[in-house]
Amino acid sequence: MLGADGSVRPPYSELHNWLSAQSKSGLKRKQEEADSIFRRLGITFSVYGMENALERLIPFDLVPRIISASEWRTLERGIEQRVRALNAFLYDIYHRQEIIRAGRIPAELVLRNEAYLPEMIGHAPPLNVYSHIIGVDVVRVAENDFYVLEDNLRTPSGVSYMLENRETMMHLFPELFSKHRVAPVSQYPELLRRTLKAVAPSGVKSGDASIVVMTPGIHNSAFFEHSFLADQMGVELVQGQDLFIEDGHLYMRTTQGRQRVDVIYRRLDDSFLDPLTFRPDSALGVSGLMDLYRAGRVTIVNAPGAGIADDKAIYTYVPDIIEFYTGQKPILRNVPTYRCGVDQELKYVLEHLGELVVKEVHGSGGYGMLVGPTSSRKEIEAFRQKLLARPSNYIAQPTLALSTCPSLTKSGVAPRHVDLRPYVLVSDKVRIVPGGLTRVALQKGSLVVNSSQGGGTKDTWVLRD
Q1: What's the predicted TM-score (pTM) here?
Q2: Is residue 366, in this structure, part of any structural domain at all?
Q3: Is 264 left (phi over 0), alpha (psi -120 to 50) or beta?
């Protein structure tokens, strides 16, 4: 909200005036009202390993994060460039592998990666799109200085919270909206539906395509979102046991008999999709689904094997990937990253563990990571042994001075570190909803914003010109 000199940045001027006029007790009452709305709607998120995880509300901070129209245009251009390049990379590595032949990325990093699926070699999904729904995690480290922290091309979550955060804010603070020209986000479910229909199998008219949202079930951490999106799009929410293959097509069981399925928006991992192809003990998938998919009889969104493009070791090569497929320099930069599988870089990481953030290359949700500056000497030494045992399993990054936004705390409004996850839809075109999910580290000084690690969310306002 404030510039380096302490002055109020222009996008925040009205909000700053509004906050200055609010009492601490008034804001607390509004926060309690917001919590009540979330509890009534059942907006939950499971934090694995904690008691009563299924009943945990996702923390919501009622002070919005504001992005100017010009800032958003820069982000939008950079994100579109990135997702187009990553989809081109996915097509290439499952076909001619030109980027490997050109020596721009090591073959073993791709071909021996556990996220790379040989079953996808030679298969071209509709429109050659592998990752249709993408969450790009962006951080700001200085004014107008954005970095991409990571790409999420498998099953990015959180979009339901973006939508519900906006609904809640409009209910609680209509006077604030009257003072700002905020771009809407409510069109996301319709854009998602349009995206899914556009990638229907060959021979199926996009308008006639039957869509389902496939969930692992109620015990999944993001089940609320699966149910929410199915409801918002007006499509069925199914589990693997609701689906079966017959006569060379996929069907779901309904009270009116079988109904054909053309597009699956799946919210379960690759390894659980088909017990005949991947994990034989999976009770969540559909036997024979991959054969049907490769035959072009059904579309799976996001495509199996898309996760190789968001592997954290691959992340370090994304600038090269962008240049290789677009011929352009990246608009949005990567965070400087050390590859621990490289001896010289590992040596530096081991010598500076207390200053760095170290992550598993296949990790997600804030699990399996070390935040050096906030870790004890014992935790650092334990992580050192993990690094020495499997160095190629980790990357390391400097601890960025992430930007802060005003947030409501027990002691009043105070700065808290944030990141931003805009949501991108890719099919016949690239669609980016103006805003996204701002995640906030609720503990003072903390840099960990993941909901699974106790972080919260706030509404994100993109101002119109």
Answers
A1: 0.91
A2: no
A3: beta
Is 12 exposed, middle or buried (CB count within 10 Å of its CB: 0-12, 13-18, 19+)?
buried
Residue 391 falls within a domain, yes or no? Answer: no
- For the CA atoms of 398, 401, 406, 412, the dihedral, rounded to the nearest 10 degrees, stands at 90
User: Between the CA of residue 425 and those of 85, 438, 447, what are the distances in Å?
Assistant: 14, 18, 28
Q: At what angle do helices 223-233 and 188-198 cross, to 10 degrees?
A: 80
The C-alpha atoms of residue 147 and residue 399 are separated, in whole angstroms, by 13
| pLDDT value at residue 8 | 95
List phi, psi (to 5°) of 12.
-100, 5
E strand residue ranges, 185-321:
211-214, 236-238, 243-246, 249-254, 257-261, 263-266, 299-301
- Segment holding 121, helix H or strand E: none
The per-residue pLDDT for 144 is: 66
Q: Which residues form the domain of 458?
A: 10-335+400-462
Domain count, the chain: 1
Can you tell me which residue has the tokens 């760095």?
356
- What lies within 8 Å, CB to CB, of 78 at 6+ separation is 146, 148, 330, 331, 332
Cross-strand partners of 140: 146
Identify whether 317 is part of a domain: yes
Region 57-61: mean pLDDT is 86
Quote the DSSP letter at residue 60.
E
